[in-house]
Sequence to fold (224 residues):
Amino acid sequence: MIETGWLYDALLFAHIVLFAVWLGGDIGVFILGQHFRRRSYPLETRLHFLKLLVLNDMGPRSAWALMVPVSISMIAMSWTSLPGWLVALSWAAGFIWLGLVWGAYLNAETPLAARLKAIEFWLKIALTAGFAALTLAGPAGWLDLPGWLALKAGLFTAIFVFAIMIDVSYRPVGPLLQLLIQDGSSDATEDPLLRAMNRTRLWVLGLYALLIAIGAAGVFKPAL
Fold:
C-alpha cells in the first residue's frame, strides 16, 4: 500500500527538511571543529568556535529526534500496518528526546544537564533496539517491508550505534578541555585533547557516511 494523501505528503516534506537540517548542520559542526583545532588562533577565539559548534549541533540533534516519529509514521501510512500505539509511542519518544536535548543545552554545565544527558543516552539505546527489531521484521516476515526500506532501518540503527559511540568516546574531551582552559595552550594540554577528539572523529565520519547511504537508499530504492 502507498498512501498519497496530504498528510503523507506533509510527512515526506518534513522528512526531507529534517534530513537537510541534519546533514547540512553536521557539515557546519565539522567545519567549526576544524577551526577549533587550529592552535594558530587565540584560545579565546577557539572557544568561541566551540560555543558556535555546540549551538549549531542543536539543529542535527533536533532533526534526529523528530526523524524517529516522522519515519515511523511514513512507514505505517505507506508500507505496512503498524499498531497505532507504536506510532503514538514514536511521537512521544521523539518529543521527549527533543526536550532532553534542549534541556541539557539550556542547562549546560549543571547537574540537571548531566541527568538529562544520562536519560537521553538510555533512550537512544532503547531506540537502537527498536529500530534493530524493525530491520529484522522485514526479512523475517513479521512485517511486509520492501528490502530497501529494511535496509534504511538497518542504516538508521547503525546511526544510533555510531552516535552512542560518539558519546562514549567524547567523554574524555570535557575534562581535557577544562584542563586546556585552566592551564592554557601547550603541548601538554593540547595533544591529549587532540587525540581524544580524533578518536571521536572516526565515529563522526562514519555517521556522515551512513547519512549519505541512507539518503541514497531512500532515493534509489535498491531491490534486495
